[in-house]
Amino acid sequence: MNQDLLPIEFLDALPVPALHINKSGKIFYVSSNLTFVASDHQVHILDFVHPDDHGSVTAALGSLACGSPVTLEVRLNGAEAAERHAVLSFSNIGSGRNSTVLVQLTDISDQRAREKEIAFRESRWNNALVNSLSGVWDQNFVTGEMYGSDTWRAMRGLTPDEPIETDFDKWLELLHPDDREHTLYCIERQNAGDPAYVSFQYRERHKQGHWVWIECRGACVERDENGRPVRIVGTDMDVSERKASEHQMERISRHLKVALEASQVGVFEVDFEAGETTWDGRMYEMYSVDRSMPVKIGGLWESRVHPDDLGRVGDNVSNKIDKLQPFSEDYRIILPDGALRYIRARSLPFIDIDGSKKMIGVNWDVTADVLLRQELEREKALAEARNIDLEEARVSIEHNAMHDYLTDLPNRRCLDDVLGKRTADCSESQMGIAILHIDLDRFKQINDTLGHHTGDAILKHVADMLRDNLKPGDFAARIGGDEFVFLSPFYGNTSVIAALANRLIEELRKPVLYEGHECRFGASIGIACGIGPNLDYKQVLLNADIALYNAKKRGRNRCEFFSTDTQDWLINTKRVSDEILTALERDEFVPYYQLQFDAKTLDISGAETLARWNHPVEGILTPDKFLAIAEDLDAVAAIDGVILEKALADFRRWQTAGIPIPKVSVNVSARRLHDPGLMATLDGLHIQPGTLSFELLESIFLDDSDDITIHNMQKLRQLGIDIEIDDFGTGHASIIGLLRVNPSTLKVDRELVRLAPQSTEQRKLLSSIIDIGHSLGIKVVAEGVETAEHIRILQDIGCDSLQGYALCRPLPADQVGAFVATAGWREASRHRSRSTSAKAVGVVAPK
């Protein structure tokens, strides 16, 4: 037997379990007190050790050759030893070739389990504090020490290494003057242990200068022998956003209250579970009910509704409530004094947070409107009856076929017949014809604002005026809409024809009084003359149309004779049209970008994409050089598509290069948005949600959205594409139209921004637009920001983003990166971006 083997009695008597092994790890004996791990089948020390720790044990056995004891921590092996940890202490027994090794095992499993539990609890506590955005503080009045967590420091603008102000008086100076007295009282009550003051709020100045609302929760955790607080511990939370939201809600609530009072609308809420209805004061007033009277379902309201309307209204209400759909109703009510009133109601059923079914709605008295509409319907019926009588009086079918039904002037068919006959007469004589093509100016505005009946009256007035100016040989016709033709004999003297045209213009310039409205309009007249045996009246009529176009182009309310210059203009227009089509084929339309900036920080908030034509001869052309002709060509949608694809490609390159432009916006024509195939095109572009906006002109779109357009806008939002309203303030959109479109952004037109530094009224208007936008959750971007003063004013009134020459001019894609890298706009924003002379003449930068 090896002389270095230890006696069994010695091993069993050791205070800790032990193994007697040889230098390679083979086991000679396992002490009887090794009970926390199975030892029946282990023949080698590695049999006791988890496989992941075999390397450490083998290394320990090797290091024993140096003679020094070795200690290491391992995990033990076997299913019953799961999560078992032990410290192994290796010691040489004997010396020389026959030396052995004593391994003592100390079980530290309970210690490791406790450490793990403590670490887990500490992690859970830290995570809870971080996720709750609460900052922890601990103040010791004896030592004067004050601890603040990183979150506590961050909400005050302090870095983790900055010292905390522990001087109480100096800390008071950081509080808002209006909050100091209240805060001192709350601290006193909190230190006293008053449960009502466990939490209180106050404002503290941030390191950057602004005020931060703090919600403080604290409690005294240690007191001295006299009951005075020694140590206070608590948490602070930044509730500035919540306070701002509360302020905004209060402001909106005030606006709503004023709106309700001004419109005399009554508000009600129905609780179907409780069987009760809550009315505001206007509802009680509208229904002539004492305010102390409770309103039960199936009681008061039903007793007021006209019996002939109750069944219809009740069925509609029940149907909409079951489907939880908003609905409207018009019905009559009978007041206690027998008076009949007409009520209009708008209602919205909903499921409340507690799961009960409820309905909220409004009522307003429309009796005056109904009576007026009834009167108008009676007047309309009488007018229609008179028109029928007039139509029945027309006994000549030929007259009906050859004359305009409204003005009783000859129509286009009759005009062609007359021109044909006169052309034949001109071939037999030396007489010619002069054709005056007349188009009314401002007629559409009258028609749109005062109604078609007013427009019809104007057309009749013009017809009567033309009849009054007819001389022998003259002829007048209405050829459609607000267009007329006046024929006169022509003997070669154009001054006579010019005098006739000017006389007609003067007559048409006179205001017309209709239904209390003074209607002012005018006329543009195109003149073409022909004489001789080879006269072609169709060509003369076409020439008059060309001359009319020239008259309208040169300012309206004037006359112009046909000239070869006008014809040349048409030829040039055709040339440009052909070049536009070629430009699309050659990919000559390119995007330029005008960056937009956050009004508060002047960080880049986006980039508007502007279309430019890289003309091979004339260079870079802005849209005012080609857009009108492109619209006539119906090529705007194609140009929009090209610019969109290039903008998305540029944006992806910026992202790859790390250029901090968060999104781009592109101008989209109304016709493009009416395209049913728009969504299929966008689906193939793989647009990253939130990085693209479509800009739509308010003046042509906002209140004019059809079903296809609304559907396309809904799909755009599903694709993550925002809707922006461009040139807001230049059209006549209503708030209802704005809500219908529900854009993410309004872009205030540059004309509203331009005079803001000089005009208080203009600043008030801008502020109102911004308030309306923010109340609807819409961001506001100001265009035409040309000076540092513009920037200051727009920042003061709460504008969200700025765009204009004061910060950035339109740039090609390859110059955007360098411009962003230099950040030159921050310095440039402090100076005027335009010369005084440019401002004096009202220079407006083209898009």
UniProtKB/TrEMBL annotation:
Coiled coil: none annotated. It holds the Pfam family EAL. Residues 198-251, 327-378 form the PAC domain. SUPFAM superfamilies: EAL domain-like, Nucleotide cyclase, PYP-like sensor domain (PAS domain). PROSITE patterns: EAL, GGDEF, PAC. Residues 431-564 form the GGDEF domain. PANTHER family: BIOFILM ARCHITECTURE MAINTENANCE PROTEIN MBAA, DIGUANYLATE CYCLASE DGCP. This is Diguanylate cyclase.
